[in-house]
Amino acid sequence: MLRDTPRGDQAVRDARVGGNGVPMAFSEAFGIEISKEKTPEIHKLVINMREDAGDLATRHAKEHYMRVRPFSFFKENTCNPEQQQELSTNGSYPSGHTAIGWATALVLAEINPARQNEILERGYEMGQSRVICGYHFQSDVDAARLVASAVVARLHANEAFMKQLEKAKKEFAQLEKAGAVKPSENN
């Protein structure tokens, strides 16, 4: 079982999408710390996307299907048993955490295409963490990636999102020019 491995430890950390959890989860893959202090425009974009890609995009399907979560179905603990009572009251399908992670990965890869492999892998792994921890079935995670892709496509038609994306791209270009962004090791 992966839970008692370094990958399992990562899965536990990936459950933290509140606060600065998502920006910090992507900082290494992105090549620079994503924070209010160092990358305020990129940070704002990521934080603003969290609600669009997560609860707003998945809530209705979760409420409609109310799929039992794996930990409830199999009567096994998750990586964080303290959350089980709360999570058992909402549906497993599709995964909100996965939708947040994959949508974030798609947009960050657009900002920093040189590190797209690292960024997309990180987004993919955030979803797999939900399976490792027993919060979701694989099909919940797979469906969430489709939801996230649709959310990102829709956001590209949103004027406020596009303005913030342009600010983030401009900020990134300045940081890259200054040598503040770690280059990809995959190129």
TrEMBL record:
Gene Ontology CC annotations of this record: outer membrane-bounded periplasmic space
PROSITE patterns reported for this sequence: ACID_PHOSPH_CL_A
* Cellular location(s): Periplasm
Reactions that this protein is recorded to catalyse: a phosphate monoester + H2O = an alcohol + phosphate
Q: Which terms are listed as keywords in the entry?
A: Hydrolase, Periplasm, Signal
Pfam families (UniProt xref): PAP2
Q: Which InterPro entries match?
A: Acid_Pase_classA_bac, Acid_Pase_classA_bac_CS, PAP2/HPO, PAP2/HPO_sf
CDD domains in the cross-refs: PAP2_acid_phosphatase
Q: In what residue span(s) does the Phosphatidic acid phosphatase type 2/haloperoxidase domain sit?
A: 44-156
Q: What is this enzyme's class at the first EC digit?
A: hydrolase
GO molecular function terms here? acid phosphatase activity
Assigned EC number:
3.1.3.2
Annotated family: Belongs to the class A bacterial acid phosphatase family.
Q: What is this protein called?
A: acid phosphatase
